[in-house]
Specification:
elongated, 10 strands, alpha/beta, single chain, four-stranded parallel β-sheet, 12% strand
Length: 322
Amino acid sequence: MSTLDEIAKLSGFSKATVSRVLNQSPHVSKETREKILAIMKETDYVPNRNAISLSKGQTQQIGMITMDLNELILSFMNSFVEISGRYGYQTIIYTTGGDKQKELQAFEDLKMKRVDALLILTSVNEQNVISSYCKYGPIVSWQRMDHPEIPSVAMNQYDGYTLALKHLIERGYKRIANAFGRPSSINTHSRCLAYEQIMTKYNLPVMEKWYYSTIYSIRDGEQLLRSLMDEKDQPDAILCSNDLVAAGILNEARRQKLDVPGDLAIVGFDNSELSRTLGITTILNPIAGQAENAFLLLAPVLLERDMELQPLSFTLVERETT
């Protein structure tokens, strides 16, 4: 196995130049980089990660914090891992189960320099607690945060929900129910605001009795529709917190012999593979782009250079359920 000295000798470049290639430095020409990388491949050179970390003052590791794992979070993680890897960073997953103390271990690891940065996917600690760790390293969040020290790549779901509402109203649906996620989340508040403003704008009833929260899964969607079927008056459309809920409502609608979209229209959120398979109208949530932007927000500290964020927007994906 080759050493750094041997790579420098074979390539004809200095150890400093070889180190810059290993450290993903932008201050190396394309031709030089390609020549050095080719020699590394030929000689089966494996860089000593600990040595690189010491020379850079970094661990080359980013922590990702989440309460649990689901299809949506895994999709975001996969995209973040991919772009992090392109710049030489590995990732560590902290799965907390909603335990505040378990979650704080990730922040303590940032403080102790066991990781270089943190990405929050879902968090349960108070924002003032989280922000107290910002002095130890960069922190970025996918969960929407209302704090100046914690940048978030989450998009305002008011915009996506507005697209869904206008689509339903244009199709003639007037009695619209809402299946929300966490009642205290900023996303839920944004969706409520969108619903109330758009319904009022079109002189349609704001049906607060059809506000349902903590609806996350296929089973939750099935149970929600069963409870709605027991009521005297029923909605003619349901907007869902995600595509899993929409799939559950669609499954139960078929069991109840409802015509979808004739008797009931269903709109999901996120444009997951499940929504495509089942033909569910949904809102495309550009998760991969948000994951990339999360890394780009860390770049000024990790890579010592600013990188331009991707412009992103929600898109309506119309299918058979509306």
